[in-house]
Amino acid sequence: MFFVKFLCVLCGKIKTTKNTKFFTQRTQLLYVVYYYLCSAKHQNMITFKPIELSDKPIIDNCLKNNTFRACDFCFTNLVAWQAKFKTCFAVIDETLFLRYREDGEDFCYLLPMGKMLLREALQLIIDDAQENAIPLTIKAVTDRMRECIEKEMPDRFQYADDRDNDEYIYFSERLISLRGKKLQSKRNHINRFKADNPDWQYSTIHNVEELNECSAMLDEWEDLNLGKAEKSLRYDYIATKVMLENFQYLQLKGGLIRTGGKIVAFTIGERLTDDTFVVHVEKAFSDIQGAYTIINQQFAEHEAAAYTYVNREEDMGWEYLRKAKLSYYPDILLKERILKLKN
Fold first, then answer.
1. What values do phi and psi take at 125, rounded to 5?
2. CB 3.0 to 4.6 Å from 116: which of 21, 121, 233, 293, for a disulfide?
3. Residue at a domain's end among 142, 165, 188
């Protein structure tokens, strides 16, 4: 009571404490305002929790109207790469908030997605960063996202390129037909594969047995490329296992290539937006010439033909991946930037 009375005096709302009735009315009003402010502050605090498989329905609901073609805004990637990024989420007013950290660094955020006004959502993560005494960092900001941010909060942020996380997007028709002089070498690789393996077969992944075969093929692929002791430390290996073990629940699409009855290549993807299909995983035995090229082409033809674009994700700074993805001449190199508050 003393604190409230003191605030009233400071605010100039009362000049004396002798008018008891006046004071009582004012203190009651102040109590209401004080309670509202405390409640609002509590409601505006973001309570993050680690992402689990069971969170798919609520996260998918927030992303269902997403039109950005960035692969970060996909439940499969969020949950499958949990071992590396320790991603946490919260949902407020049907809006998804995402926060993660990598290799012991400070928290980073992704752009909020959902029904909340962008200005309000951005302010919440600005406040969250301040609450945690960390600099605000939002990653995976595309040019379209930047335009939306600047419209709502002009000239408050600075942006830095993040080349290792730029995403490679292609017209699905080009990946299927491989027409043109630039892609002649891809057609040659496929022709060589077919000539060397006349019994080859492509099939869509349908059942647990095929998923188990793909898992065994992944283990063999890893053993050829890494020592067994390193396998459990490879985040892409862990992510691929998560996808294979939860394939049906995650509503994924998959395809595989067999020669001599044995799987020599497989790939996994899914719908990202209404016009874009995303490829999460592509594995093939590199000693079989053309295996990578044919699984790429066949998967696009059988699983992604209904979409205008195919997003083959980023290269993560790995030179061999960058070279491979550039060799298909992307129609869109989806640039991603890192956002920070201006000083």
1. -80, -30
2. 121
3. 165
Instruction: Judge whether 293 and 193 are in contact, CB under 8 Å.
Output: yes
Whether residue 213 is found in the same domain as residue 247: yes
Give the C-alpha separation, 105 to 14, whole Å. Answer: 51
The alpha carbon of 188 is separated from its chain's Cα centroid by a whole number of angstroms, namely 34
Whether residue 261 is contained in a domain is answered as yes
Which parts of the chain register pLDDT below 50?
Answer: 1-24, 27-42, 229, 232
Domain that holds residue 35: 2-44
Per-residue pLDDT tens for 232-279?
458 999 999 999 999 999 999 999 999 999 999 999 999 999 999 999
Q: What are 14-53's pLDDT values in tens digits? A: 344 444 444 345 544 443 343 334 334 445 579 999 999 9
| H/E run at residue 265 | strand 262-273
Q: Which two structure tokens, joined as six digits, stand for 338?
A: 């890192």
Q: Do 292 and 204 have their domain in common? A: yes
Do 18 and 86 share a domain, yes or no?
no
Same domain, 151 and 255: no
Which pTM does this prediction carry? 0.85
How many domains does the chain contain in total? 3
Q: 64, 131, 68, 67: which is closest to 99 by C-alpha?
A: 131
Residue 252 lies in a domain: yes
Same domain for 148 and 191? Answer: no
Q: Where are the alpha helices (DSSP H) in the chain?
A: 2-10, 20-44, 56-63, 75-80, 82-85, 118-131, 143-152, 172-177, 184-196, 208-225, 228-231, 235-245, 291-303, 319-326
Three-state DSSP class for residue 45 = coil
DSSP state of 105: P
At 44 the pLDDT is: 58
Cα–Cα distance between 80 and 234 in angstroms, integer? 12
